[in-house]
Every structure is written in structure tokens, then in C-alpha cells.
Amino acid sequence: MDIGVLTAGILTLAIYSFLYKDNPVYKMAESWLIGLSIGYALVIFWQTTIIDILIVPLFKDGRVVLVIPFALGLLMFSRFSRGSSWLSRIPIAFMIGAGAGVAIPAMLYARTLKQMSASVMPLITENGGFNIEALVVAVGLLSTLAYFYFSREHKGPIGKTAKLGTYFLMIFFGATFGYTVMSRMSTFVGRVDFLLTDFLHVIR
Predict the structure, then answer these.
(1) I need a labelling partner for 170 at 20 to 30 A (CA). Which of 9, 23, 58, 120 fits?
(2) Are 161 and 143 in contact (CB under 8 A)?
């Protein structure tokens, strides 16, 4: 049996031993997982970021402009000194500002503009047929917004519409929870298949 398969099988069983109770074997496997993950991420980060993006272009290709991010990166280590720790605020400010500048337009499009455009679909299709999906989306949107409208008491038509909105919310939360459960079950099935096929050779 391959040493990698043997190690993976033993560690998988060690992780699943938590289903019985918390035990030292599980804690050992958990520590190994965290340690190896951090070590692997550091090696990948060092090679793909520090070496390929900074060191090689700066010292081999002569791209002097990379001195600026190199200096900002070195300033991050000033956090280890009490007297000069304030210098680390400079690269942190650049990171937060650049990250916000990149993330805000992307999130605005994905979570606001795209959602708004999806909620205003035409009720009549190009072929002249009735778009039932657009009607369901419109009713769900308006009833859900009515549920979160707290300026008036939920009585009469507003109350009935808000109650309909709770059903749409429950359907949404149920579907989200079901998707989460199915993704975990898919991971579990993959691990069981690995144990029975590659590790124990019960299934050929």
C-alpha cells in the first residue's frame, strides 16, 4: 500500500474518532491538519508570491518599481518592535484601501446590481408567453420587503403580504440549509469511498 494512502486513511479514521468522543487521537490529527495546512500555505505563498512576483522580477529582471511593495512588506515586521510598531500602519492602510477599492465594485455588482436586475424580469417572454418565474420572483421580493417594513403595524393587506414573505424566507433558509447539508454529505461520501476503496480495498 502506498505510504500516502496509508497516512491519509489513518488520519481520516483519527478525525472520525471524534464521532465517538473527544480523544487524544483526534486532537493529534487535528493538530497535524492545521500544522500541515499552514506549512503548505506558507511554502506556496513563498514560491508563488515572494519568489515569482517579487524577488525574480526585482533582482533578475530589474523592475525597480517593485522596491515600493518590497519596502512596504518589510515595514510590516515593525510590529515586532514597540518603538517602531507605528510604521506597520502604513502598509496596513495601503492593504485596506486597495482591498476595499477592489472589493467594493465587485460586491456592489454581484450582490446589489445583479440581484436587482434579476428581480425585474419581464412578465411576458419574447415568444409572447407568460413568464411564471418572473411572477414568483416579483411576489417573493415584494412580500419579503413587506415583512421587513416596520413603519406600519402588520395588519390587513400588509400583514397578509408580510406573512407570505415569511414563507418565502423559510423556503430560502431551508434550501440554503439543505445545500449546506448536501455539500457536507458529499464530502463524507468521498471520504467513505476513499476508505473502502483505496485504504481498506473492500470495494474494488
Answers:
(1) 120
(2) yes
pLDDT digits (tens, 9 = 90+) for 138-183: 999 999 999 999 998 999 999 999 999 999 999 999 999 999 999 9
- Cβ distance 5 to 198 under 8 Å? yes
- Tell me the per-residue pLDDT of 100-118, one tens digit each, with 9 for 90 and over: 999 999 999 988 888 888 8
Number of domains in the chain: 1
d(CA 35, CA 28): 10
Percent pLDDT > 90 in the chain is 79
- Distance between CA 83 and CA 63 in Å, rounded? 32
In a domain, 62, yes or no: no
- CA 90 vs CA 42, 80, 100: distances in Å: 23, 15, 16
In a domain, 179, yes or no: yes
CA separation (Å) from 138 to 119, 146, 162, 175?
6, 12, 14, 19
Distances (CA, A) of 42 to 36, 50, 67, 76, 101: 10, 10, 22, 17, 26
Backbone φ/ψ region at 130: left (φ over 0), alpha (ψ -120 to 50), beta: beta
CA–CA gap between residue 160 and residue 142 (Å, rounded):
12
Q: List the alpha helices (DSSP H) in 114-155.
A: 114-118, 132-147
Supply the range of the domain harboring residue 154. 121-204
Q: Residue 189 falls within a domain, yes or no?
A: yes
